[in-house]
Structure to design on (399 residues):
């Protein structure tokens, strides 16, 4: 059989079968090209739409200071380092960012990767060796699952945010084996926060280390946006904190922070770190400037909390099911996957951009519209967005 046959023969068992149907129906929601993105608003097909589908939580991607920092870095260093960190790819600005991130997260050491995906894959596959165990929440990000699969260890999964099931899983594992529990600080689809204090208590009971993916928490939770561990006051009890630059930091890349000897080990063993070109100068400078603004302007985070609460309360009062979120990520559960896609299409036509998420992105029966707020959203943006949701929700019988 030709190995490419699966690409052409789209039978009902093929994972792309429904994508083909969506294209034929004119409701395919992915890879849509935006003509311009100004943060809270974007241009799509020549029309201005409200943006409620971005991870730009602090609204810094269009901030003048962040843009200027990137431009100055290009002038000084060029557009790329054209090499890995091991070879010619380490600049002083890499070390500066790593030092400031470690200080910000109150950890001994930090290293930056080229993407968040590479951070998780590299860290987990480096740390979880033969005869070790990675214990993950069933709703952990795909990069965490891939990191576990690429390691030589064994992966165990527990029910989402289920402390009893976590303990059940840990209890059955053999004593004397290495164990790393990995959770998202804030879950990217549901906006739920991991119950870190309780998870830490269970980890200590079974001599397991803990790693927190704070991609959607840094800049959102805690003092000056220091993340989930800071939010709960348990920074000393979390062994590894991972984050990305593609959300609140208005850039591209990722990082892992922890004890110096552990980070030094990852730095020399993580294949996605060793064998990838280093993060580029404009991305480094953007992240540095965003980190500076994050700490100097805590009012941004306060406004993000305020508009997010207004958005959550507004959707809930209209009768939408938003789950258990307490963050700027606000899911609107539609449950039926085709109705989810049709509602996304109607919302876009009415002037609001959100993200439809259907299986396998979420479990069957949990299809949703992923909405998210930014610190730069105004009350007018929120009110207009709610009006559109009300109109479309009633039209499609969702509310």
């Amino acid at each position: 059989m030709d190995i490419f046959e699966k690409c052409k023969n789209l039978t009902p068992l093929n994972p792309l079968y429904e994508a083909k149907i969506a294209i034929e129906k004119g409701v395919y929601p992915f890879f849509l090209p935006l003509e311009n993105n100004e943060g809270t608003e974007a241009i799509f097909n020549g029309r201005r739409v409200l943006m409620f589908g971005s991870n730009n939580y602090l609204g810094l991607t269009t901030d003048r200071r962040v843009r200027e920092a990137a431009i100055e870095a290009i002038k000084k260093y060029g557009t790329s380092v054209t090499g890995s960190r091991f070879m010619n790819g380490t600049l002083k600005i890499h070390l500066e960012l790593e030092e400031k991130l470690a200080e910000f997260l109150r950890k001994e050491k930090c290293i930056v990767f080229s993407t968040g995906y590479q951070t998780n894959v590299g860290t987990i596959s480096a740390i979880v060796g033969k005869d070790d165990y990675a214990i993950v929440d069933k709703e952990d990000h795909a990069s965490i699952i891939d990191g576990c699969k690429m390691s030589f260890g064994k992966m165990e999964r527990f029910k989402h945010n289920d402390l009893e099931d976590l303990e059940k899983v840990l209890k059955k594992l053999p004593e004397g084996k290495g164990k790393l529990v990995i959770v998202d600080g804030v879950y990217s689809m549901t906006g739920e926060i991991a119950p870190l204090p309780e998870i830490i208590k269970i980890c200590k009971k079974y001599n397991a280390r803990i790693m927190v993916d704070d991609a959607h928490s840094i800049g959102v939770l805690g003092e000056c946006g220091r993340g989930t561990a800071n939010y709960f006051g348990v920074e000393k009890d979390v062994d590894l904190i991972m984050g990305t630059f593609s959300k609140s930091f208005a850039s591209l890349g990722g990082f892992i922070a922890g004890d110096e000897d552990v980070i030094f080990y990852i730095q020399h063993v993580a294949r996605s770190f060793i064998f990838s070109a280093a993060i580029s100068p404009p991305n480094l400078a953007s992240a540095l400037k965003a980190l500076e603004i994050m700490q100097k302007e805590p009012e941004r985070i306060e406004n993000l909390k305020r508009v997010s609460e207004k958005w959550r309360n507004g959707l809930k009062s209209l009768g939408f099911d938003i789950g258990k979120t307490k963050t700027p990520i606000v899911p609107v559960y539609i449950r039926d996957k085709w109705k989810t896609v049709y509602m996304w299409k109607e919302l876009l036509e009415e002037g609001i951009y959100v993200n439809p998420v259907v299986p396998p992105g979420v479990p069957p029966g949990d299809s949703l519209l992923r909405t998210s707020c930014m610190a730069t959203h105004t009350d007018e943006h929120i009110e207009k967005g709610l009006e559109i949701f009300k109109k479309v929700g009633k039209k499609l019988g969702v509310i």
Q: What stands out?
A: The chain has a mean pLDDT of 96. The chain has two domains: 10-61+298-395, 64-296. The domain at 10-61+298-395 is CATH 3.90.1150.10 (Aspartate Aminotransferase, domain 1).
